[in-house]
Description:
Layout: H1 4-7, H2 20-32, H3 51-62, E1 65-69, H4 71-75, H5 80-83, H6 96-113, E2 118-122, H7 133-141
Parallel strand pairs: 1-2
Helix pairs in contact: 2-3, 6-7
Amino acid sequence: SKLWLEKYAPRSSEDLCLHPKKIAQVRGWLEDSNKFGQTFLLLTGPPGCGKSTMVRVLAAEMGLKLSCWSEETDSGVRKLSDWGDIDWRDMPKRNKMASFRSHLLRGRYHSLESQSKQLTLIEDIPFTGKLKFETEFRGIME
């Protein structure tokens, strides 16, 4: 008994409800990124318009290993059912930037050990609300 979202999720790029030209542009970038030393692709748009879904579908079609990071999955929100009844004050506190850095480093080390191309999908930028955010974020991404 899958969730509706999982049951009817697009399985191929033909199933995506996006302009074919946009899908072709992203596919082309994924194919050519190593040739030209490109390391980041920024997709923008309103929530729910299909950015992450397109990346997931294209990665699967191209045989890319996909690693995803978002503040929601990092915070443990999706794992609450495993914890049973909890008090929010008992949840472990995590430094968002440290967790983000750790995730990216794991992806980099995996790509050095593996022959398959690693693709990291960052669904949320870990904004901490601190003034040093921009400097710290740039340092992580370099």
